[in-house]
Structure formats: structure tokens, C-alpha cells
């Protein structure tokens, strides 16, 4: 397997605004990102993921993810599985609340006391899942650190995760190809043939049908150069 950048967990939060549980999903995910596990997590934008954003989908293919869904439709989990890979963990908020005896906020626009308790518990659950995925053991904390007491941090998106982007001149124009060195390394290590390479690249990159021949030629040339460099190195 290729040597990947520092392993982080992508959090894919339900973006549904018609349910209180959708707001609860976003609030709890933000707490996990900014306060509880800021150095171990990044956020994945579900609308961008569904729209075909290459970097979002590439991250979810190479890194573990947690889907946090506001209802049993499981939009976040299903989109992750359809376009990249099954999420490593999945949390369905109504099931989580029922198991913990907690209530969702009464409205979809404003947190009440019950919603805040639920958000805190859900954020802790997300953090615990992150630790389990990364194999991290932490000492129990008596009192959760509040946002005011914690060091100021900013949630990061998957585009800052270290997934490489290669620029190739294709059909007379410089174009970005996501995760190309990682795909090259996987193919070399798995003993796959160059004939299969282009299909793998298409999984992570949206390639216009009319430019497939040009993309194929440029990618195979880049792969040949990569293989030669590895042999000489």
C-alpha cells in the first residue's frame, strides 16, 4: 500500500434542514471537529460529495469516515458507500437518542436544553468512534472541556488532508488529477497492469467523455515515467 499522509477520520454530517435531528447532526459534528478531536478529524461536505467533488470522494476512498445521519434514510452513509467506500462507522441519530434516553431539539432552527444535552452526548460518541478507528486510548476526563476553555481551533476540510493533486497537460490545457501518485503506487504494489489504470483513475476523477483518449494517453505516460523513476531510484 502507498504511504499516505497522516491518517485522519472524515466526518460526513447529514445536511437535512427539515428535521431537528439534521441541526443536531451539524452541531455535534462541529463540536467534535473543533473541540474534541480537532487534530484527528476533517469535515466532508455532503452536498459537494453528491455533486461529484473529486477531493471529497477521493478522501473518503483512502481514509476512514464516520457518517452522522439525522434520519433512517441514511443519506450520508449511502452517498459515501455509493461514490467512494462504505463508511467505517455510521451513527443514525434517532437510534442513538433512543438508546441513550435523550431528546432531539423541539425545533429545527434553535437549540433548547434537551438539544444541547443531546449534542454534547453525540459529539462525545463521535469522538469515541474516532478514537476506536485510529486505535487511540485516552484517559477519562471528569468534566468535558468547554469551547471557551479550549484552545481556539478551526475545523478543516478534506481538501487540506494531504490527498495529492497532480497537474498534467491534457489536450493543451493543464488539468488536475486527484490521488494519482497513490493510485500509481497501489498498481505497482498489487501487480496490476497499466490497462486497468485508467479505470481506477476515473473512479476518483470526473473525466469528460470527449477527452477520455487524451486523458488516457497522458496518464499512461505519467505512469511510465513514475515506474521508471522508481526503478532507477
Textual characterization of the structure:
By secondary structure, the chain is of the alpha/beta class. The protein folds into two domains: 9-134, Rossmann fold (3-Layer(aba) Sandwich); 164-232, no CATH class. It contains nine helices and six strands, in the order βαβααβαβααββααα. It has helices at residues 20-36, 46-51, 54-62, 75-83, 93-100, 113-134, 180-190, 197-204, 212-232, and strands at residues 9-13, 41-44, 65-69, 89-92, 165-170, 173-178. β5 (165-170) and β6 form a beta hairpin. The two termini are 18 Å apart.
Please render the helix and strand layout as text:
Layout: E1 9-13, H1 20-36, E2 41-44, H2 46-51, H3 54-62, E3 65-69, H4 75-83, E4 89-92, H5 93-100, H6 113-134, E5 165-170, E6 173-178, H7 180-190, H8 197-204, H9 212-232
Parallel strand pairs: 1-2, 1-3, 3-4
Antiparallel strand pairs: 5-6
Helix pairs in contact: 1-6
Strand order of the largest sheet: 2-1-3-4
- Proportion of helical residues: 40-55%
Task: State the CATH class of the largest domain.
Answer: Alpha Beta
Helix-strand pattern: EHEHHEHEHHEEHHH
Using the CA coordinates, give the radius of gyration. 20 Å
Spatial gap, N to C terminus: 18 Å
Please summarize the sheet with the most strands. 4 strands, parallel
Compact summary:
A four-stranded parallel β-sheet has the order 2-1-3-4, with helices on both faces. It has a two-stranded antiparallel ribbon with strand order 5-6. By secondary structure, it is of the alpha/beta class.
